[in-house]
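To: structure subgroup
Subject: Chain for Friday's discussion

All,

I'm putting the inputs and outputs inline so they're searchable in the archive.
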Amino acid sequence: MKGLELSKRYFETYGQELLNKFPEIASSVTVGLVGEGSECYGFDDEISQDHDFEPAFCIWLDKEKEEEFGFRLERAYAKLPKEFLGYTRQRLSPCGGNRHGLLLTEDFYEKFLGQGSLPESNIDWFRIPSYALSEATNGQIFQEGTGKFMQMRKVLLQGYPEDVRLKKISASLALMQQAGKYNYPRCLKHNETGAAQLALYEFVNNALQACFLLNHSYCPFYKWAFRTMRSLPVLSETELPLTYLIENPNAQGNIDYKIGIIEDISTLILNEVKRQGITSASCNNLDTHAYSIADKIKDPFLRNLHILQN
C-alpha cells in the first residue's frame, strides 16, 4: 500500500473523530501528508518502508494556538491506535524531527523556507532551493483548514514570482551552454574524462531545472527529479535523452551522438522558451536567449546579478 493511501485511510478511520474532540479549532487546522519522504510524492515502494513509513498523518496548528491546544492535541494523537492494516506506528522521537502528528505551521515552513512566513521579496524567493519548495508543497491535503498553513500553501503552489522564474531560467540556459555545448567536448579534447562527465552532469541538472521552471513548477530533490519530470505537461519528452547522457559512457563512437543529444535537448527547451514569449531572440544560441530573458526582468537587483547565478 502507498504511504499516501495509508495515511488518508488512517485519518478517515481515526483522525476525524480526534478533531471532533476539539470543536474550537477543528475547522482551522489542516490535515494531510506533506514534506520529506518518497511517500509524500507517491513514489514509495516496498524498499521505502524501511524508514519513516507508518499509519500516520500531519495536523498543522498555528503557533498562536499552541499554548491553548498544542499539548492536548499532541496527547490525543499519541493515543491513536498503534496498529492499522498490518502496519505499526513508530515511536515518537524524544529528539524531535518527527514528520507526522502535530506540527506547528510556522515551524514546518521554516524548515523548508528558512522562515515561518512567506518570502517577502524576490531575493527571498530566489534564495530558496527548488527542492525545498517542492517538499513544502507536495503530498495531499485531507482536510483544508482556515489557518495559516493553507494560506501559505496556496501562494507557494503558484510557483516562483515571474522575475525570479525568469532569472533562474536565464541562468539555467547559460549554464547549459557553458557546460554542455562548450566544456563537455573541450574537456574530452584535453582528455579530462572526469571533468567531461561533470560537465554532462551540469548540463543535465540545469536542463532539468529549466524544464521545471518552464512548467511553472519546482524541481524536486535530485533523487526524484527524473521520476517527477515524466508527468510534466511540457518537455517531459526530454527525460529519456537526459537520462541517456549520464547513463552511457563517453566511448569514442558515442561522443558525437551525445553532442547531438545536447543539441536536440537545447532546441526543445528553446522552442518552449520562444513559445512562452519570454525571449526576444530568434536564434538557437542558449547564451543569446539567456541574456534576452534576463533583459525582461523588472527587478533591478535580480536583473543585475551575474548571468550564471541561480
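Points worth raising on Friday:
DSSP finds 13 helices and six strands in the chain.
The longest strand covers residues 30-33.

D.
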